[in-house]
């Protein structure tokens, strides 16, 4: 299994990657407020639940430069028979069959450096290692094109939670052992 430490060392990123922690909440709140419209802001309580209510050995990611949170990626095992919601606390999940990429946020000053892609790849690798074969997400704010470039396709599953916005699109992709998008194990 590739550790977060190995990932940041092998990818030559100008920042470090580590597990997201509860003490990152103040910077997470500031980061989301700087890049999302008010309707897409989540509360500190909700974000805290999404950091803590994950299986042992699972971690969402923080990208840091010194003490500054540059980006974060929240993802966790999920049940495909449940519709993802926005700004709702996460309770521990059981009988999960997909990886749900809930939120990938990058500060504007760090955009375009490949940070989001690296964090997504690491979360997808974690999903594979947990026996999950598919990843899902809700693309918001016109991000469908970005996710398409990472191999996600729109699903025919229907509507998403209205809180995601009128342009939200439910997307998915398979997680295959030979997937060239995933980093090779070190």
From TrEMBL:
InterPro entries: Acyl_CoA_acyltransferase, GNAT_dom
Gene Ontology MF terms: acyltransferase activity, transferring groups other than amino-acyl groups
Keywords, ordered alphabetically: Transferase
Pfam families in UniProt: Acetyltransf_1
Annotated CDD domains: NAT_SF
Secretion signal span: none
Domain N-acetyltransferase: 15-176
Origin superkingdom: Bacteria
Name this polypeptide is given: Putative acetyltransferase
Organism: Advenella mimigardefordensis (strain DSM 17166 / LMG 22922 / DPN7)
């Amino acid at each position: 299994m590739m550790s977060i430490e190995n990932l940041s060392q092998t990818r030559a990123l100008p920042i470090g990657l580590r597990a997201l922690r509860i003490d990152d909440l103040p910077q997470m709140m500031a980061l989301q407020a700087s890049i999302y419209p008010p309707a897409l802001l989540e509360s500190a309580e909700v974000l805290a639940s999404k950091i803590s209510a994950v299986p042992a050995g699972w971690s969402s990611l923080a990208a840091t430069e010194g003490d500054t949170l540059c980006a974060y990626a929240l993802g966790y095992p999920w049940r495909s028979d449940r519709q993802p919601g926005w700004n709702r606390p996460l309770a521990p999940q059981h009988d999960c069959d997909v990886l749900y990429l809930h939120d990938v946020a990058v500060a504007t000053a760090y955009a375009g450096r490949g940070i989001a892609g690296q964090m997504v790849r690491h979360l997808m690798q974690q999903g594979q290692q947990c026996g999950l074969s598919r990843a899902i997400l809700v693309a918001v704010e016109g991000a469908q094109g970005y996710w398409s470039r990472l191999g996600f396709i729109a699903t025919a599953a229907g509507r998403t939670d209205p809180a995601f916005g009128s342009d939200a699109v439910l997307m998915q992709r398979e997680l295959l052992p030979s997937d060239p998008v995933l980093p090779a194990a070190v």
